[in-house]
Amino acid sequence: MSSSSGSQQQVRVKVLFFAQARELAGVSESELLLPARLASNDLKGRLISEFHLSLIGGVFVVALNESFVEEDTHLELRESDEIAVIPPLSGGAFSGQVLVSFRMCYE
Amino acid sequence: MDTYQDLVGLESNVLNINDIIQSVTSASCGAVSTFIGTTRDNFEDKKVIKLEYEAYKPMALKQMRAVCSKIRSQWSVEKIAIYHRLGEVPVKEASIVIAISSPHRQESLLAVQYAIDAVKTSVPIWKKEIYAGHRPQWKENKECAWSTNDVNTIDKQTEDFDMGGNSHIDHDYGVSPSDEHLKINPDEIQIKADDAEIKRRIEAFISLKKNSDTSYKPYIHKTGSRNNDVENTEVCARVNCIYRRLEDSKSHIKVGRVYNQWSHQSTQSSLPIKSKDKTSNHTTALEERLCASEQFLGINKPVPKDVYERIKKIEDRLLHLECISPEYKFMWKRSTQINVDTDDESNEKEDDSKDDSDYATNSDNTTNKKRIYSTDSEDRYAKKVKR
């Protein structure tokens, strides 16, 4: 799991869930013991398996201490860091009206 | 008061649009551009009862401030206000209000457009739609970079912003549109029309179908509850109607008949049962019933000796009568009295059959007729009477 070679130091982080992820995990907040150094993709894998997020698959991003984590980055976690599972956003307004497939056809 | 002010907020109460606009208005600004996002009460014909917004609050506020600073890095605007509603939001109420003031309108207009886009793609806020009769659904902004739809397949330039064309994509489509959609050959697209036109066509089709349905109505006359067919409860579908006679028509409705060239009846000569005694292999009771049927149907004597041929003749006669007046088939069944107000040739047939009634062993004509045209229960009753 951990790609780091040297220290296998573990840290306890806080995990927040929102929207669909919150409903799948069944909690809005939890804790997780993670290697201090790990790849962002490994982190996503751990979150999916630990919190039953397979239904939304990889369709979420992770925020670390209120900042989006880019894909394929290596993370250095500290004790009490805050990780958030962010499903696709839907802030703003409107209910959609047009099907995607229709939109394709217009152009 | 600071001239360059960023006002961001997440509100659980109704967004006061006037106050927000007021807060960005300044004497040095010639323009205040606003964007007010409300929600329609329907999504793909599903009635939206209410919406629920939730946010990762501290990060959402942080991201909203980041949007403000990005606006300032691109346009010369004075005050920016971005307010988003959270919690339960009734339909038609504003869920987001953006107001930006600038000395010239061009800047604030562009800035507002950028702001709503940026909010949709970078501020952690989620919307759940609760429908009437459908399960609730978490929405996805199609602009969101990691939504289940490939954001790149949609050309943002084609979005009709003010028309509210920002579509949220339904999770339930399952299959996400992949790159293939981009490579559609334009020649293969059969329908090229905008929303309004497609909607108009669908509605025109529906109304056409509805109207064409009325063309059947003249032929069917609904009967009142008086004629409710309570006896026929074993059938799964019942329609209470009778056929109405068309003008200048001998027949009341068109009846299709299939003339089988070959059937068990046409090859019955080879049946072993026929080789039995032709005259006495049925009982007198059966003979009596056959005679009564023939008499009632107006089948002339002499009748064939073979009982199967006799039944076939009766069946043919019934088919013929059904063919010329199909409506009476059901009327006989429903009525307990035979002599209902028939005004057609079947009445004449009945009169004819009465004339040569000498063959009937049972003199009570009514009982015989009942036996032929009655329901099962009456039939059983008739048999009892006979014994």
UniProtKB/TrEMBL annotation, chain A:
Record bears the keyword Nucleotide-binding: yes
Membrane-spanning ranges: none
InterPro entries, alphabetized: Beta-grasp_dom_sf, MOCS2A, Mopterin_synth/thiamin_S_b, ThiS/MoaD-like
UniProt keyword terms in alphabetical order: Nucleotide-binding
Source organism superkingdom: Eukaryota
Database matches in PANTHER family: MOLYBDOPTERIN SYNTHASE SULFUR CARRIER SUBUNIT (PTHR33359:SF1)
Protein name, UniProt field: Molybdopterin synthase sulfur carrier subunit
From TrEMBL, chain B:
Main location: cytoplasm
Pathway assigned in UniProt: Cofactor biosynthesis; molybdopterin biosynthesis
The protein's Enzyme Commission number: 2.8.1.12
Reactions that this protein is recorded to catalyse: 2 [molybdopterin-synthase sulfur-carrier protein]-C-terminal-Gly-aminoethanethioate + cyclic pyranopterin phosphate + H2O = molybdopterin + 2 [molybdopterin-synthase sulfur-carrier protein]-C-terminal Gly-Gly + 2 H(+)
Acidic residues bias (residue ranges): 341-355
Keywords: Cytoplasm, Molybdenum cofactor biosynthesis, Transferase
Biological process annotations from GO: Mo-molybdopterin cofactor biosynthetic process
Location relative to the cell: Cytoplasm
Start-end of Basic and acidic residues biased regions: 377-387
Note: This protein is produced by a bicistronic gene which also produces the large subunit (MOCS2A).
Function text: Catalytic subunit of the molybdopterin synthase complex, a complex that catalyzes the conversion of precursor Z into molybdopterin. Acts by mediating the incorporation of 2 sulfur atoms from thiocarboxylated MOCS2A into precursor Z to generate a dithiolene group.
Protein name: Molybdopterin synthase catalytic subunit
Record organism: Trichogramma kaykai
